[in-house]
What we know:
Distance between the termini: 30 Å
CATH architecture of the largest domain: Roll
CATH class of the largest domain: Alpha Beta
Number of domains: 2
Radius of gyration: 22 Å
Strand content: 15-25%
CATH topology of the largest domain: Thiol Ester Dehydrase, Chain A
Number of strands: 7
Amino acid sequence: MLEADYNLHKLNSTYFTDLDASRSHLLSNLCYGGVSVVEKELTAEGKSGIMAAIIGSVTTSFKKEIRIFQQYEVWSRILTWDKKWLYIVTHFVQKGSVKHKCLVTDILSGRHICGKCGGTSGEGNGASAARPVVYATSVSKYVFKKGRFTVAPERPLRASGLLGGNGKMGDVCSKNQSPQINIKDPLTKSSEGMDSPAIGQVVENERLKGLKYATAWDELESLHTEPFGDNETSGCVPAIGHFDDISGYGFSYC
């Protein structure tokens, strides 16, 4: 009830609390080891400060309301990255509308794996046949910093063993190559034919697919330089009114 608005829907602001938790779990599970390795390398290179992933911005598109007492799930994954930013996409979905059969945490702990995730169709598919009910979609971007030094996202990702191969981003296969990769069962022995470069190409293909969304979103950054109209200046801006918040610290001009 404390998260409900006057329409008895989940407050828009509370989505960001869920985003914080989901993104933190994702990055800590995927990148903690790699960040530790890179931090030691940078310290040896003379870079000072603590290495951290710092949030740059968040955008959320609301598609359908979440009513009070309605159960939902938060699914986050790495969307893409460039030379500076790591982009994470998060979907708020109806509970149970996305199926999973395997957990990476089960692999790391040595527990039983079903071996049916990653299929393209049929019973072995790790996702529900029907499209999930999506309430909202968010995109967040992070920058890795050690002190004032910016670390390219690829470096901690590669140090975490997530990219496959030893080449740099985009160098796994040439542009003219179209490798046929069987990824039906990547968690079991049936994926033994996938060597490290092939895995790296799959990751790179996904990165490029997600990059188009990140590029479109980055176009909004130019709005920071255009807070006023063509005939307005910071010294004289017409406004409808001046409105204080309850604490008196926030001021809203319309």
